[in-house]
Amino acid sequence: MTALQIAFPHVKKSQANVDDIERQWRPVFSILITPNPGLLRLFRGWIVSENGKDVKQDFKEIIFFEWNDMQTALRCLQLEQFKKFVATIEDWIDAPATVQYHKMSAGVEEFGKAGVPEVVQVVVRNEDDVVKADSAWAQIAGAVGGAAAEPVYGKSINLEEDVFTGLLGWSSFEARSGIVDEPTFKDGLADLKSIGDVTQMIAQLEEMEF
User: Fold this and answer.
1) Distance between CA atoms of residues 134 and 164, nearest Å
2) Rounded to whole angstroms, how far apart are CA atoms 14 and 39?
3) Is the peptide bond before 35 cis (omega within 30 degrees of 0)?
4) Residue 1 has pLDDT above 90, yes or no
5) Where are the alpha helices (DSSP H) in 145-204?
6) Residue 148 has what DSSP assignment?
7) What are the Cα distances from residue 92, in Å, to 35, 57, 88, 172?
8) More exposed terminus of the chain, fewer Cβ within 10 Å: N or C?
9) Alpha-carbon separation of residue 103 from 52, 82, 100 (angstroms)
10) pLDDT of 112-127, one tens digit each?
11) Considering the entire predicted model, what is its pTM?
12) Which residues contact 81 (CB under 8 A, 6 or more apart)?
């Protein structure tokens, strides 16, 4: 299993603030890995579509941290470099980020580097929901074929209500559109929606290389 931290920062919603983040995010995020406490990969960017709606002007940032294990991910919060990082980004945000920790089926490298990375989430309230979500995701994954990187999935460990997360790294919007209307994909998505409200987010991501 892979330890994945997904952060949804609550950034100040102005173009000037977003422009400042884009100019400075790499040196600021380098604070987290000086020295590297166990971070394997970092992708960040903006959610551009949510449930089919264009949300570019909502300035919804999203960050993926892949760690060598979950203990390391949680321990990072106590490090001085993390506290320095938080202090550095204070002018960019209105409130602390919403953070999810997930145990995922595999790493997120191919997802993060994909042309069209898509995040699919649904709240799972009990073990029956988890079983249904796993089954629905298997159906979705089976429909994807070569149009996307190998689908990755997992469940949160730190939220009051657990969240099932599936990641689809599409090669392009054209490849995605050729699959999402296929009966097998639609049936799998419908099964996910039978559990609860499904959120589908498409992002534009950049990788921080280190």
Assistant:
1) 9
2) 30
3) yes
4) no
5) 173-177, 183-193
6) B
7) 24, 16, 9, 31
8) N
9) 27, 22, 10
10) 999 999 999 999 999 9
11) 0.97
12) 31, 32, 34, 35, 37
Residue 150 amino acid letter: E
Among 126, 112, 115, 178, which Cα is nearest to 155's? 126
Q: Which two tokens stand for residue 161?
A: 């209500």
Q: How many CB atoms lie within 10 A of CB 150?
A: 13
Question: CB count, 10 Å around CB of 53?
Answer: 7
Distance of alpha carbon 6 from alpha carbon 157, whole angstroms: 12
User: What pLDDT, on a 0 to 100 scale, did the predictor assign at position 110?
Assistant: 98
pLDDT, tens digit (0-9, with 9 covering 90-100), for 55-66: 999 999 999 999
Query: Using CA atoms, how far apart are residues 4 and 182, in angstroms rounded to an integer?
Result: 30
Pairwise CA distance, residues 32 & 39, whole Å: 9
- 72 Rama class: left (phi>0) / alpha (psi -120 to 50) / beta: alpha
φ, ψ dihedrals at 8, nearest 5°: -115, 85
**Pairing label, strands 60-67, 2-11:** antiparallel
Q: Which two tokens stand for residue 35?
A: 């020295």
How many residues are listed for the chain in this entry?
Answer: 210
